[in-house]
Amino acid sequence: MKNPRAQTWSPTLILTVLQIIGTGLASNFQIKANIGENVTLPCVFPAVQGLPLTDIRVFWQTSSDDVLMYLDSGIVKRIHKTNRYSNRTHFFGEYLSRGNFSLLLARVVARDEEEVIHCYIQVKDNTGFSMRYSSGVQLEVSGCFSQPLLEGPGNNSYTCKDSINFTCTSMGEYPKPQVEWVVNHEKHHGHPSETLDHDLNTKLFNISSILTITASAVETVQCVIRNTRNQKMRYSVQLSFPNCTYSTTDKEKPALWIIAWGVLGLALLMAVSGIVIFVILKSRRTSSSDSANVPADRSTSDRSTELAPLTQK
């Protein structure tokens, strides 16, 4: 018996596939899948319903020719080129006779979206087996596993003027996640620093984001991990902070300014009071001098009047 991969990719088969695609008999699907869950890859060809399975061949394989499942004359075979799909693929046996050759792919991983997975159906005729149907499935995988972990300054002492750090960590994300910060119940538009770790084997991302903010500007803090593909969001716990305290130096500075302004105000008040008292006293002295001068002028005038007739004689 020939190797099924050799039969699948023979020149005649390739030409037949191109002919199917050109005549519109090929179907393509894009399926969303979550990491760790099972997904069904559709492949339905009702035209073969009623035919014996011995007259049908079905190939499930990737673009790189890695066979997931192979149905040959009613016998299911697994001829894996790699171990990526080992013990992860299953037909729905009760539906095969109805022309439904969909495949159950178990325990989806991020790498499953790297290649298009094809379904090819051959039907026996007078000349042998010929291609009658093909389809392609492109998986769009997303995944998030851990609840975001938010860490703050804890019980460490800090003052209102200190800059404090908050760290948000999430593990096993796919694709690359987005970290958002919520400060005082509003989205924070700052620029926190981020550290990204990408596992080349699993394709998963670990991310850590550090937000630095002045203590006096924060009452509550929370971080959010957003999956950029399915837009799902997961929230960390919310950390709350009491009113911050000022340092001894910070307390002394306002007190000194208050004292300085108090002394200056008192000095100004005393100066103004002195000026007012001086003006009042000067005004009283002037009034006394005027009162004393009035009788003296009057007696002089009287004497002049009395002496005037004597001078004329």
Automatic annotation (TrEMBL):
Residues covered by region (Disordered): 288-313
Single GO cellular component term: external side of plasma membrane
Classification via SUPFAM superfamilies: Immunoglobulin (SSF48726)
GO biological process, one term: cell surface receptor signaling pathway
Principal subcellular localization: membrane
Domain named Ig-like: residues: 11-130, 162-240
PROSITE patterns: IG_LIKE
Record keywords, A-Z: Cell membrane, Disulfide bond, Glycoprotein, Immunoglobulin domain, Membrane, Receptor, Signal, Transmembrane, Transmembrane helix
Membrane protein topology class: Single-pass type I membrane protein
Cellular localization per UniProt: Cell membrane
Pfam families named in the record: C2-set_3
InterPro entries: BTN3A2-like_Ig-C (IPR053896), Ig-like_dom (IPR007110), Ig-like_dom_sf (IPR036179), Ig-like_fold (IPR013783), T-cell_Activation_Regulation (IPR051713)
Transmembrane segments: 255-281
Superkingdom assignment: Eukaryota
Cleaved signal peptide residues: 1-26
PANTHER family for this protein: T-LYMPHOCYTE ACTIVATION ANTIGEN, T-LYMPHOCYTE ACTIVATION ANTIGEN CD86
Protein name: ICOS ligand-like isoform X1
